[in-house]
Design goal:
Length: about 300
C-alpha cells in the first residue's frame, strides 16, 4: 500500500525571464507567488519564485547576469533547450532511508546536492533564526520540539531522467488536503493563507508529471524511481512506464520526441472541483500543462 506521504510535491522550471514567466504562470493557474528564497538570491547565480497550487508548489528558477557571464549548468541548459522543465520533487516519509536507496540507482552517482534546514517556531511562524547545512547521506531529519525542520536531497538527471529531488519536512507534511505543515522550499508563511484560499479557480495541485529521459529506457528509469523511493509506491502492471504515488498521482516516463526536449516535459493538474475548466492544455515554459478531473483516490481540498 502506498504511503500517504509519498507525493509529487513540487515541480521546478528553468526560465530566462523570471518575472515574465512567473506572471504568466500565476495568471494561467490563478495562483500567487508565495515565496522568493533570499538565500538563493544571496548566492549571486540564481533567483526564484514559488507559486502555491493547492498543497503543491511550482518553482521557477532563473540565472542572473553573473551566471550567464560564468556559464553555469543552468545557463548551458537554457542555451540547449530554451525555457524548460528542470526538476521533479517527491515528498518521502523517511529521507534517511530514501536518500540511501536513491543514491545507488542507475550508475550510483549519489547525491548531487543536499541541505538540512531548521528553525525555532511552528508551521507558518516564519524563518527567523533558521539554520542550515549540507546534508550527509543517510542522516535522519531532526525533529526537535517547538521547531520546524526540513531536508532536500538532489540526484543526477542521468540516473532519473531529470534532476530528481526528495524532501522530508516536519511537522505536518503528511496532512492532506489543505496541508499546512512545514515545507521549507516555499518558506514558512504560506500556511497562513491556506484556510482562506485552499486553491485557486483553475487547479488544486499536481496529478502527474511526464519525464522524457535523455539517457536510459523509460521503463528502466521508472523502475529506478520505484526502487529509490520505496515506501510502497508501485508500477502500474498495464503501464510499466508509470509509477503510482499517493493521492492518485503518477509519474510517467516516455521516449523523447525526435529532436525534442528531455527531462520534465509535461504536467497534469487536478482541475478545481466545480469550476469551469479554463483550458484543456497549454504550453508554458517548455512544458505541456493539462487539466484533468480528480479520479479514484485523488485528494483535493
Amino acid at each position: 500500500m502506498t504511503d500517504p506521504v509519498l507525493r509529487l510535491r513540487q515541480i521546478c522550471l528553468l526560465a530566462r525571464d523570471l518575472e515574465w514567466t512567473s506572471g504568466v504562470l500565476s495568471a494561467a493557474f490563478d495562483a500567487p507567488v508565495v515565496f522568493r528564497d533570499p538565500r538563493m538570491a544571496a548566492g549571486g547565480s540564481l533567483t526564484n519564485t514559488h507559486i502555491r497550487l493547492g498543497d503543491s508548489f511550482l518553482e521557477t528558477v532563473s540565472p542572473t547576469d553573473l551566471a550567464w557571464e560564468r556559464s553555469t549548468t543552468q545557463t548551458r541548459l537554457l542555451e540547449r533547450n530554451g525555457d524548460c522543465g528542470y526538476m521533479a520533487i517527491v515528498q518521502v516519509p523517511d529521507v534517511a532511508a530514501a536518500s540511501r536507496s536513491m543514491a545507488i540507482q542507475g550508475a550510483g552517482r549519489g547525491i548531487v546536492a543536499g541541505n538540512w534546514n531548521a528553525c525555532p517556531g511552528s508551521p507558518g511562524s516564519g524563518l527567523a533564526g533558521v539554520e542550515s547545512g549540507p546534508y550527509v547521506l543517510g542522516e535522519a531529519l531532526p525533529k526537535d520540539p517547538d521547531s520546524v525542520s526540513g531536508v532536500n536531497v538532489q540526484f543526477d538527471p542521468r540516473d532519473f531522467g531529470t534532476l530528481a529531488e526528495i524532501q522530508e519536512n516536519w511537522p505536518g507534511h503528511g496532512e492532506f488536503p489543505r496541508n499546512k505543515g512545514a515545507y521549507f522550499p516555499a518558506g514558512n508563511t504560506w500556511q497562513n493563507e491556506v484556510d482562506a484560499r485552499p486553491h485557486g479557480g483553475v487547479t488544486a495541485g499536481f496529478a502527474a508529471v511526464e519525464i522524457a529521459p535523455r539517457d536510459g529506457d523509460p521503463e528502466e528509469v521508472c523502475q529506478r524511481w520505484m526502487n529509490g523511493l520505496g515506501a510502497g509506491c508501485s508500477i502500474d502492471p498495464a503501464q510499466p512506464n508509470t509509477l503510482r504515488l499517493a493521492g492518485g498521482q503518477t509519474m510517467r516516463f516516455v521516449m523523447p520526441e525526435s529532436g525534442g526536449r528531455t527531462g520534465v516535459v509535461g504536467v497534469d493538474l487536478w482541475a478545481t472541483p466545480g469550476a469551469h475548466k479554463k483550458f484543456d492544455s497549454v504550453d508554458i515554459c517548455g512544458v505541456k500543462w493539462t487539466l484533468v478531473d480528480p479520479v479514484g483516490d485523488a485528494t483535493v481540498a
